[in-house]
Design brief:
3 domains; 5-stranded parallel beta sheet; Rossmann fold; 6-stranded mixed beta sheet; alpha/beta
Length: 728
């Protein structure tokens, strides 16, 4: 045994010396005319084992011999993180509420412009202002919103895999650009997979059926990988059926790399290796074993633990050098495609100037996104839109009326517009605008994100009375309530689906003083507020709307913009309607597909200041084969007096089935703009494959012969027209 070990050590040292000596060979890896994979292989052949390990530490030091930086990643979820202001967009759940993939693509394009501009600025000038940032960005978060209490719902795209998948593809393509050779940025999908609980997330084990994994928890990741071509993907902290994702070979290699053909790299979540040593109770192991098992399972990139333990793991035979080189190939392939090893001017994105950062043009995109995201939940008596020519006084109330709501993965805010300021800007000096906090949001003030936890010190009773008096004297009262990072945020799940603090008391008191009261909800997750839904005539969902949110809200309130946002999640009627949060089978009552009973507001819901008629539904065939498709057309007409957008939604339903299937499944949507009296024809293509369910006997998707309903309407509950297709 000693002789074998000695030979192995000698062989390793010999190879290392040859590799180091070979560093004087012609630098093929710097030749821009060579194929990327050959350049990557050449660079890897020149690296020592320790240098390879260093380059797989995402916070590692520079590899001095080749002057290769290791710390190359950043965040840009709804605004590029930097120490100077960048454009602050509405949060991602608001982006999803637009149901506008083109606008989401345009938003991601702005984010990548600003990220590249930051990179270009410091690359060109040694002493350029601001932090130096790389080009690998950890966005988007595409975890699915099964859990309405989840503290990170603001980062995600709602409860539906199809909607999330469409949004993810648009966002990823906007970040990564459309150049055939170079990447603009490298997008990282987070957090793979079955991750939507913050409580005990570093040791959580999700028990999930094979069917639910393939039908609900994985399809949107597949869309973003196969169609969106995302370059990176983050393994989440949790375990699935007893195996932590960081060492889950089935998840990271069998499904992701083999079945889906993923060519990028997998990165652990921060501290992901550590969870195997100190987190998951039944998986505790040494750091060397944790590193070796992570890499052998398919995790390619991680923390300091990789740099510190890869060399010994290779020497001890726990990690093959072939797998190590594969991981490094995946990471370096992305970095070469970002242009890091090419002359700066050779990369077309090097021409993006720092002048674009938080420019007027980018602010205009943020404004449009905020406008399109706002959902008109109800409007009894057509109290909205308001006519500023008939209003002399407005009471703008609530703890969120004069506040910009930030989350942890956006940038530093520059010029921002609160709802109070937006209303003042809109009505001008001719209308008296008064303001009072009226109450407090409350929430945890001891958690991780303290900047959003502090609230103005005030006497609640005095503030409430002030708000009531202002409402009583005003022509209209507008109350801004919702959540902050003190209520829902990373590492903090919500404690209630209702309003926290004294906010509901505020709404009830103001409404008693002035029946012309409007409530604007500014939250990320759904708000279950049955009293408000029953009593308040007009309710808007405005999310956390970014730097131009105040102007967007005013534009909707006064009718300059007709609202057309749609809910990307179900708003449950009560907490009792939500299954236990450790239940990962959504058929037990989660989401619009399986909800038990009537929700407060359904998935896809959103009203308008005009009306739309659906007519003339046509199917290209009434029978198709299991590998066929049907083309669908339907006419949508604006039958009202205002121009506006409509979001036509296509759902399917299997009439007779052998297993429990959803009441409805979203399979298409289009947002269109219509002038009064205008009609447009919408086209959908529905492949038979989109009618399938996962069959646990054959371990694959199965399309059952039989009848299927084709349902088209304005929400999951507001179906306007339908047809049928028979699968043979």
């Amino acid at each position: 045994m000693k002789k074998i070990l000695a030979v192995a050590v000698f062989s390793f040292l010999f190879v290392s010396r040859i590799t180091a000596a070979d560093s004087n060979a012609p630098a093929l890896y710097l030749d821009v005319n060579q194929p990327v994979d050959q350049r990557v292989a050449d660079l890897i052949s020149r690296l020592t084992l320790e240098e390879k390990a260093t380059l797989l530490n995402h916070r590692g030091p520079t590899v001095e011999r080749f002057n290769i930086r290791s710390d190359q990643w950043n965040q840009c979820l709804n605004g590029v993180q930097w120490d100077k202001p960048t454009t602050l967009f509405p949060v991602c759940v608001a982006m999803a509420a637009t149901w506008d993939t083109n606008l989401v693509h345009a938003t991601a394009n702005v984010l990548s412009d600003e990220a590249r501009a930051i990179y270009n600025g410091w690359h060109l000038k040694t002493n350029a202002p601001g932090q130096h940032k790389g080009l690998i960005y950890r966005a988007p978060v595409i975890n699915i919103e099964r859990n309405p209490y989840w503290g990170r719902n603001h980062e995600a795209w709602g409860e539906d895999p199809f909607l999330t998948g469409r949004m993810a593809v648009s966002y990823v393509q906007g970040l990564q650009g459309d150049d055939p050779h170079y990447l603009k940025l490298a997008a990282t999908l987070k957090h793979y997979a079955v991750n939507n609980v913050e409580t005990d997330r570093q040791k959580l084990n999700a028990t999930v059926s094979e069917r639910m994994l393939h039908e609900y928890w994985l399809p949107h990741f597949r869309d973003a990988v196969v169609e969106g071509k995302a370059c990176s993907l983050m393994a989440s902290y949790n375990a699935i059926n007893g195996t932590p994702n960081n060492i889950n070979h089935w998840l990271l290699t069998d499904v992701l790399k083999n079945d889906w053909g993923f060519q990028g790299f997998v990165v652990s979540d921060l501290g992901g290796v550590k969870t195997m040593v100190e987190g998951h109770e039944k998986k505790q192991m040494t750091y060397e074993d944790a590193v070796a098992q992570s890499l052998m399972a398919g995790c390619d990139f991680s923390d300091k633990e990789f740099m510190d333990n890869i060399p010994s793991a290779v020497r001890d035979g726990k990690l093959s050098e072939a797998r190590l080189n594969d991981a490094l190939t995946r990471v370096l392939r992305v970095r070469f495609r970002l242009g890091e090893f090419d002359p700066f001017d050779a990369v077309p994105y090097s021409k993006i100037s720092p002048d674009v950062i938080n420019s007027d043009a980018n602010r205009a995109v943020a404004l449009k996104l905020a406008q399109e995201a706002i959902v008109l939940l109800q409007n009894r008596g057509d109290i909205l839109p308001l006519d500023k020519n008939k209003i002399k006084s407005i009471a703008v109330l609530g703890p969120l009326a004069d506040r910009i709501l930030m989350n942890n993965y956006n940038g530093k805010a520059g010029k921002t517009v609160t709802a109070l300021q937006g209303i003042k800007d809109y009505v001008g000096a001719g209308v008296a605008v008064t303001h009072a906090l009226g109450g407090l949001v409350g929430g945890d003030t001891t958690g991780r994100w303290k900047t959003e936890s502090a609230e103005v010190a005030a006497d609640p009773k005095a503030e409430l009375q002030k708000a009531v008096e202002l409402a009583r004297k005003a022509d209209v009262a507008i109350i801004f309530v919702g959540t902050t990072a003190a209520v829902e945020q990373e590492a903090r799940d919500r404690k209630t689906l209702g309003l926290t603090g004294t906010q509901e008391e505020l709404v009830e008191a103001v409404f008693a003083a002035n029946p012309k009261t409007i409530v604007v909800e500014m939250s990320a997750g759904p708000l279950t507020v049955p009293w408000i839904a029953k009593n308040i005539p007009a309710v808007l969902q405005a999310w956390w709307p970014g730097e131009e949110g105040g102007h967007a809200i005013a534009d909707i309130l006064f009718g300059d913009v007709n609202p057309a946002g749609r809910l990307p999640h179900t708003i449950y009627a009560s907490a009792a309607q939500v299954p236990p949060l450790d239940e990962y089978d959504v058929t037990k009552g989660f989401t619009y597909m399986y909800v038990n009973g009537k929700p407060l507001f359904p998935f896809g819901h959103g009203l308008s200041f005009t009306t739309f008629k659906y007519d003339n539904l046509k199917l290209s065939a009434d029978k198709i084969k299991t590998k066929g498709q049907v083309d669908i057309t339907v006419d949508v007409k604006n039958t009202g007096q205002r121009s506006g957008d409509e979001v036509a939604q296509l759902y399917i339903h299997q009439v007779k089935r052998s297993v429990k299937r959803p009441a409805k499944e979203l399979r298409g949507f289009q947002r269109i703009s219509l002038q009064p009296g205008e009609t447009k024809t919408i086209n959908f293509t529905l492949p038979a494959a989109k009618l399938a369910f996962w069959d646990e006997h054959s371990h694959g998707f199965l399309v059952e012969p039989g009848m299927y309903s084709i349902l088209i309407g304005s929400s999951s509950e507001d179906i306007r027209t339908q047809g049928h297709i028979e699968v043979q």
